[in-house]
Amino acid sequence: MFVQPGIVRTGIAAELAERAATKGPITLGLVGAGQMGTDLVVQAALMPGVRIGAVCERTPQNVSDAALMAGHERSHVVSASSANEIDRAIEVGRIAVTEDYKAMCAAGRIDVVIDATGSPNIGTIVSLEAIHNGKHVVLLSVEADITIGRYLKQEAKKAGVVLTGAAGDEPAATVELIGFAQALGLEIVAAGKAKNNTFKIDATPDEFADEARARNMNPRVLVEFVDGSKTMVEMTALANATGLVPDVAGMHGPAADRDVLAQVLCTREDGGILSRSGVVDFTLGKGVAPGVFCIVKPRHPRVLERIADLKVGPGPCFALIRPFHLTSLEVPLSAARAVLHGRPDLEVLDHPVAECAAVAKRDLTPGQKLGKIGEYDYRGFTMAWRDARDGFALPLGLAERATVLKPVRKGERLTYDNCAPDEELVVTQIRRRMDQADAVYLAA
């Protein structure tokens, strides 16, 4: 834990320090020790009142390497195969490493479970196990959230625990700006993120292998960002947490730089490209990435005059910009707020707003089994939920391991008519029940 002499802790840092002094640190159970998981192990070691208690990982060496990087001794990581063994390790100040997520979720010393697998299906399974064991959950798998988030929220509410999206990811960072603007009585015209890398919708891991190696990334994960899937997933999550809608399928994504962003992502009435106010979108322009934005419009001339006078922009719309998001480094704050305040940083609404559909990145043939997001077969595409439902769009979170039923041309959407999702996956089974319930609701 880092302590800076002579400076008093404030805000949540002070709350965490007080919690540690009175009840002990908030103890995290982590699933996955890849890039994000390693960051979390290191970050938790630097924070007051937070610790990693256990890590579920199929490659224990990854956990040891992460712990060493965080400044722990190698002996600090111990193997555990049951909930009791995990609890005993935590009680003597060690980090338990296990391959059994059920044991970790059942361990009494774990306060919050963080899913860092990136898999919609695994994220679903881990979240449900944690919830049913009375643990708060931080869901890093946004793909799971946009696919069956409403169901997970209902289960968490029934169990009396918090299910939250992660601080540091763009949706939660944008929600901070939206809440700030709403508290000031400003109209939310548009909100979203700036895409901070190449945008190539048919990108494949082979093309980006060298760049991924240089950045110490999995090529598939890098391609999730490059082909736009991550942007589409994140903006779908933002829509479903706020009620902001995609103005057009796929969103506009203009190349609007920071100084003109508010004059582009505004309504046509105000000189922009939007057909309506209250939308989710992204920009390819310069000066905003890797941050997020909220385009606002004052509803009183005095307020407009003051904001313009403060050099925010010329008006009538203004861009509020958070110029950074710290990804995995901020995630423990969501865990802390779940425990300290019992509230989520990002929570799906009770009704759907947007859907992230899947679009073919190449021609697909009947009988073909589809790969993972960020590979060769498909990419994400944000749509209004009703449009996606009316078009039988296959959700992106159900595309992995789906079977192609009919020929699909490059650029065409995957649908329930031309693809069959894998019914053995838990996420598919839950989404099927949700769709059936939505059909009954719509027919009523």
The stretches of 5 or more residues where confidence is low (pLDDT under 50) are none
In percent terms, what proportion of residues is strand?
15-25%
Major sheet description: 7 strands, parallel
Terminal-residue CA separation:
55 Å
Strand order of the largest sheet: 3-4-2-1-5-6-7
Count up the helices.
Answer: 16
> What is the average per-residue confidence, as pLDDT, rounded to a whole number?
95
Q: Fraction of residues in helices?
A: 25-40%
Q: How would you describe the shape?
A: globular
Radius of gyration: 22 Å
Q: How would you describe this structure to a colleague?
A:
The protein has 444 residues and is of the alpha/beta class. It has helices spanning 11-23, 35-46, 60-69, 83-91, 101-106, 120-132, 142-159, 170-183, 209-214, 219-226, 229-242, 261-264, 301-309, 331-341, 385-390, 426-443; strands spanning 26-31, 50-56, 77-79, 95-98, 112-115, 136-139, 163-165, 187-194, 245-246, 279-283, 292-297, 318-322, 354-360, 378-384, 403-404, 419-420. The strands form four sheets. Strands 3-4-2-1-5-6-7 form a seven-stranded parallel β-sheet, with helices on both faces. Helix 8 packs parallel to helix 11 (229-242). It is globular, with a radius of gyration of 22 Å. The mean pLDDT is 95.
